[in-house]
Amino acid sequence: MTHSLRIISWNINSLRLRLPLLERLTHEARPDIICLQETKVEDALFPLDAVRALGYEHCVFRGQKSYHGVAIASRIPLSNVEIWDVVGDASARHISAALDNGIHVHNLYVPAGGDIPDPALNPKFAEKLRCVQEMTRRAATMTQQPSILVGDFNIAPLEHDVWSHKQLSDVVSHTPIEIEHCHAWREAGAWRDVARHFVPHTEKLYSWWSYRARDWKASNRGRRLDHIWVSPHLYDACIAYESFPHMRDWEQPSDHIPIMLTFSL
DNA sequence: ATGGTCGATATTCGA
After folding, report:
1. Domains, chain A, ranges and CATH?
2. In 3D, which of A12, A78, A11, A15 has the Cα closest to residue A45?
């Protein structure tokens, strides 16, 4: 009898503000490992006691004041913690750790990229592409070991990862150059896009809805920006994929919902 | 074509 583990990825958009939502999520989904992005808290102020009190004794994190920030909270021990400078400006966008079964967990927050999808005109878009290229460069090495790569990639790579493929083709997150970079990145590591392994490509699937919509559910103009990828070692270990769209209706929600992989050991 | 709303922080910036 093998046993299974659950891993969640969530852009929480301020960990300190949304600790109560994190608690509700843990009670509902009982994840073993939680990867958070946009914690928006510097390391000295990380609410370690509160996260441990939820049952996640093993926490690693890299934050900065106001922006970005990533964390891995786990019920099982973590080792071999690494923090990569994926953009070249030391912003807190990556952290990884190994589980005691040898699986490496990488948690990544790709730059959003600003509004203009041209690297020559927009330094933020250039930075986004550089980040994806850096992860592409590392992909083959990463997937030599059993690895799970999760996070907010800020790219919706497939036609039905956005509410309108046509209308978003010139909107940062779904432009042809980002999609091309994203596919090259995935293929460089033979990463499997877990959500699309379980949900047909013809079906709309989102993980983010803008705060700016009057009624996010009625307009339903979502995008799938958050991802869970696994290396070939773990293809057969993937049991289920789930997301939590009802959490977008909770009080003071993040604009992203958590996504979860269940995998066997 | 524009603006719409958040969060952290400071009265703006990033998303």
Report:
1. 4-264 (3.60.10.10)
2. A15
